[in-house]
Amino acid sequence: MAVNSTVVLDPERVRKLTERESAMLDERTRGSAEMYRRARKSLSGGVASTYQARNPWPIYLTNGEGAVVFDVDGNRMWDFHNGFGSMVQGHGHPAIVKAVSERVALGTHFAATTEDGVVVAEELQRRWGLEQWRFVNSGSEATMDAIRIARGFTGRDTVMKIFGSYHGHHDAVMVSIGVPYDKIGDREDYASLPYGAGVPHAITEMTVAVPFNDAGAMERRIQRLEAEGRKPACVIMEAAMMNLGVVLPEPGYLEEVREITRRHGIVLIFDEVKTGLAIAAGGATERFGVKPDMVTLAKTLGGGLPSGAIGGSAEVMHVVEDGSVYQVGTYNGNPLTMAAARASLLEVLTPDAYRHLDALNERIVNGCQAVVDRYNLPGYAVGIASKGCVTFSPVPIVDYESFKANQDVAVTELAWLYNMNRGIFMTPGREEEWTLSVTHTDEAVDAYVEVFAEMARELTE
């Protein structure tokens, strides 16, 4: 990871470019403005989810084809957003379209298990090496149920998570995310802070956050909690943090976490909602070679349909099988979702697909890093298979604290506008990254790098 900090970007230039690009995007998206005026009369904020909101109006899409999407104004864009990382298969993949089309005529919902669900569970078992699986309908449901299972298995209540990591929108994990730098506190004793209103204080206090890439701090906090009679039921974490751009684990860190949790009898949950099936056939578990007690999946699993899964060791999942923990949901294992997931696993996300993603990742990361080096930008490019980003920081980001202290917020906001105005559809906000799909090509990647180079020239010349 190369970081070059020889150029100090002019904040006034960044501000003026941002103003120009904002006006340009407003002009390009008048149709979205009209849709917003209509939508806000019935949809709160004019959107189906707060993460889709934007000032002065959101961007409304009409359709996608492979690696491109179209908005209501007819703008054609390379899709590096990919449904917040869900669409690694690309839009309208023939295998998934065929599977869902054939399934829909046979019945869309039974609240009963189908053969497709069995096949999907067998394939996930093979890829992750975890014996038992259950299905849900989203990443939030997956992490919520995984935590409940871990609590049921251990008989303990406290949850440990990584400070700054996002694990869905249920109360137990809406803690210590998006905290201002001056509120982070002592990394040896991070406070438990609610993420927005509506999270009960009593539940917030049952979730304890520790820094990423610091196994020593994790163990010391576990020891203090144990002395207080609050030993954690589980540690839930991403093996690579995926909501600060991309923050990779340092060598040996995940192995230490695995050893610590095993020694203390704590269930280790890898939240693979973003990494599962996106960075390897067996996700981060395969990529980094460390096996947790449980994993949670969603996003990429369903090929665009609402989906999620929980995998676990036979020992941990026994509390589900014997009925001690109720893991339920009317739409769990929905026939359409399982048909799409089966086609995706067996026909789309193949070994050749991952070789293609790795090649694209190398091309886009090398291309962006070459731009960083050419213009001496304070930052670096980082990626792994379908996930990556340019991090605008003069030093490597290793955890939430270093992210908040060093990330250039203004430049990341400019980069989003710059991309959108030049045919690159990106996730909004400084905490997201690009997502590639199996339908992306060298042409798509080169277009991304070309736009980045254009912005770098304007920032520095």
Task: Tell me about this structure.
This protein has 16 helices and 14 strands. The mean pLDDT is 95. Helix 9 links the parallel strand 7 and strand 8 (267-271). The strands form three sheets. A seven-stranded mixed sheet has the order 4-10-9-8-7-5-6, with helices on both faces. A four-stranded mixed sheet has the order 1-2-3-13. With 461 residues, the protein is of the alpha/beta class. The longest helix has 24 residues, at 351-374. It has two domains: 11-88 and 353-460, Alpha-Beta Complex (Aspartate Aminotransferase, domain 1), CATH 3.90.1150.10; 94-348, Aspartate Aminotransferase, domain 2 (3-Layer(aba) Sandwich).
